[in-house]
Amino acid sequence: MPDLSPLDCLNDLVARIGPFDRLGVAVSGGSDSLAALILAIDALGAGSVAAVTVDHGLRPEAAEEAQRVADLCKTLGVEHQILHWGGPSGGNLQDEARQARLALIGGWARGRVDAVLVAHTQDDQAETLLMRLARGSGVDGLSGMTEMRRSDGVMWLRPFLNVPRTSLRRVLSERGVSWVEDPSNADDRFQRVRARTALAALAPLGIDAPGLAATAARLQRARAALVAQTAEAMRDVLSEDAGTAVLSKSVLGLAPEIRDRVFAHLLIAMSGASYRPRLDGLHRLIGDMGTLMGCVLVDEGAHLRLYREARAVEELVASSDELWDGRWRAEGPGRGVIRAMGDDGLRQLSTQAKAGLHPHWRGTGLSAGILSACPAIWRNGQIIAAPLAFWPQKWHLFARPLAAIGDRLELSH
């Protein structure tokens, strides 16, 4: 099968998802991202492209490499910015660096560009599939990376998932553009490097990058069908009450794959986590009830209820004009802060109820554990409004629906 034209792949994705007034490109200085920059200019023109480079500071050469990208962008007439990472905290270095890169680029992109182009190739897709196979991933993981995803208000595009790395390097060679080779790409301490080595060893068996990328594409179609079934199931079993998920017990009788997806989606949406829970932990939660990812699942007799764990939100504070816990916004007179009600807030509400200022919060039918994790409006250490507990004081609280947050049903990577 001949190599696909990378420019055709980019133009096709832009035609299907765009149009874009301004496209961001994440450029490291390596061959793939530099080719993506050149191709973005070919597709949209230099004036409609902005580039960003993250200097991780992990190698002495990193600053010089970032500056080389900046110099090239100046020559090409493309706006460019270098972002700096504060450094690792001692965990998984590659994962920390990846998360930092996404956060920095995402912050740069919001309000500046319509989407961010990243240069993952067919080779990257195949390596990703092998790594997820090693972790025992299911359909979602083995469907690999998607050509488009949305996360925290940013659209990320990967148009080259069916394009071999050699095709992107050919673009640079034809233009006389040189690139840098990151020495970490040859360091077998990293799993991706070991996956690359394994892929070369598997080639004689016919297991190669094009074949694995094709497998990922087929699994993406299977995942899309599962997502559609999960969305339908959620419409049948889910209702919301004070920002909590109230589930018909019929959810437990769903096909295990759909049942697990319903609970995983709700946990991600409620907690704001980036990844779905581990399957063993999810099954323990469903079987035994309890706590997972800062959320609590309880059997209330007629139904199940999933709600935020008070301990998970007790330190969260947001201005009354900001989003609280990733889901809640407030509208009301004056200024205040949004905090969880907590035990102190419930005590204050009980005192006010005894004074006849409003009905007692117990009349909501919600337990102290549920309400203590719910938001309220505070000022100077005093609760000034609790719209979810019979004391609105002209304030309103709105929670983004659990079934709609961030397209979480896609569970994409």
Task: Note the topology.
Blueprint: H1 6-17, E1 23-26, H2 31-44, E2 49-55, H3 62-76, E3 79-84, H4 93-109, E4 115-117, H5 122-134, H6 139-142, E5 148-151, E6 154-157, H7 165-175, H8 191-202, H9 209-237, E7 238-241, E8 244-248, H10 256-271, H11 279-288, E9 290-292, E10 295-299, E11 303-308, H12 310-313, E12 317-319, E13 328-331, E14 337-340, H13 342-354, H14 368-372, E15 375-379, E16 382-385, E17 396-399
Parallel strand pairs: 1-2, 1-4, 2-3, 4-6
Antiparallel strand pairs: 5-6, 7-8, 8-11, 9-10, 10-11, 12-14, 13-17, 14-15, 15-16
Helix pairs in contact: 1-2, 2-7, 5-8, 5-9, 9-10
Notes on the structure:
There is one protein chain. The protein is built from 14 helices and 17 strands. With 413 residues, it is α+β, with helices and mostly antiparallel strands. The protein has three domains: 211 residues, Rossmann fold (3-Layer(aba) Sandwich); 89 residues, no CATH class; 87 residues, no CATH class. Helix 1 crosses helix 2 and helix 5 packs across helix 8. The protein starts with 5 loop residues before the first helix and ends in a 14-residue tail after the last strand.
